[in-house]
Amino acid sequence: MGPAELEEAGAVLATESARFASFGWMRGTSGNLSAVLSRDPLRLAVTASGHDKGELTAADVVLVDGDGAAVGAGKPSAEAELHARVAALTGAGAVVHVHTVASVAMGRREPGGIVFKDLEMLKGVGQPAHGTEVTLPVIANSQDMKELGDRLEAARDPRMPAVVVAGHGLYVWGDSPRQARHHTEVVEWLLELALTER
């Protein structure tokens, strides 16, 4: 793994970031994205801290290890450790963290988890449209990424590739940046529907 691979991942994450920013899901410098570059040892490209997510370039990523610590130059997002934890825990190839109004509002309304059923959009996260209930977990926020990771690990439902962090936002993952994007858009649609209905 060399600079070319990191830059290539950076270009993908910059494109994804611009898309999410255009939806208003990554306002200012909020939110962060990552892509797994290797599994053994675990290495991820994570968006750099403090950058406008609508204006990222291929160079605005940092290589981090399995603990979320920078490997080489740059300052990764403060939440890089949680990205690495999610990748290790779920086998995901990419993680998305966005700050959407619907995720924060629904996290407050349904602190025990947000239940979805009988919706065609559930197919977008690999679940049947009918005959099953799927819960999107809601976990309490923490500035300690290990503590937050422990909460995520304890609460996660393998049928739902996402969790809401109360008062904060949404973490979503997938096998690739593209699948993580699709999952993010589907989960956000479900949250917006729930917010509208309730």
Throw out a few tags for this protein:
single chain; 198 residues; alpha+beta; 7-stranded mixed β-sheet; two-stranded antiparallel sheet; 5 helices; 9 strands; 36% helix; EC 4.2.1.109; Aldolase_II/adducin_N_sf; amino-acid biosynthesis; Aldolase_II/adducin_N; lyase
In brief:
Residues 11-195 form the Class II aldolase/adducin N-terminal domain. This protein is an alpha+beta fold.
Q: Quick one: biggest sheet?
A: 7 strands, mixed
Identify the strand order in the major beta sheet. 3-2-1-4-9-8-7
Please tell me what the overall shape is.
Answer: globular
What is the structural class?
alpha+beta
pLDDT < 50 stretches? none
Give an account of the 3D structure.
- The chain has helices at 3-22, 80-90, 101-109, 145-155, 177-197, and strands at 32-39, 42-47, 61-64, 94-98, 114-117, 133-136, 138-139, 162-165, 169-174.
- With 198 residues, the protein is an alpha+beta fold.
- The strands form 2 sheets. It has a 7-stranded mixed β-sheet, with helices on both faces.
- Strand 7, helix 4 (145-155) and strand 8 form a beta-alpha-beta unit.
- Keywords: Amino-acid biosynthesis, Lyase, Metal-binding, Methionine biosynthesis, Zinc.
- Pathway: Amino-acid biosynthesis; L-methionine biosynthesis via salvage pathway; L-methionine from S-methyl-5-thio-alpha-D-ribose 1-phosphate: step 2/6.
- GO terms for molecular function: methylthioribulose 1-phosphate dehydratase activity; zinc ion binding.
- This is Methylthioribulose-1-phosphate dehydratase.
